[in-house]
Design goal:
Strand content: 5-15%
Distance between the termini: 86 Å
Shape: elongated
Order of helices and strands: EHHEEHHH
Helix content: 55-70%
Number of strands: 3
Radius of gyration: 25 Å
Mean pLDDT: 94
Structural class: mainly alpha
Strand order of the largest sheet: 1-3-2
Low-confidence stretches: none
Amino acid sequence: MTDEQLMTIREMCDTFEVTPRTLRFYEQKELLFPIREGQKRLFTRRDRARLKLILRGKRFGFSLEEIRQLLDLYHVGDRQQTQLEAAYGVAKNRLADLIRQRDELNTAIGELQEQMKWGERMLASMEQKRAIR
């Protein structure tokens, strides 16, 4: 493997905007497998690809266990069909959760806006009564 294909922990942090602690955590959770040379960690192209998928999965709200299971399906030997099917299923469930959460937020926002309008009317009424006195 050439040096161009390997990245140090600092290069990984700069490239992916993560902290060294994050990379060590993912290594501890066996999501990344850098080459160890003493205290030095060298990350391969495979590690970079896995980190991209980990970060994307986290952004979508997937758990680390879901991400691990999906990453582990890469080597099933069916040209990633099993991995894609599993990823699609997890994504479909996550999308349903996000839509439900959005709908709940929209309802809460609407209710809060109504309460604030009521509060504005009450304050305006109180201000008018004080001005009349």
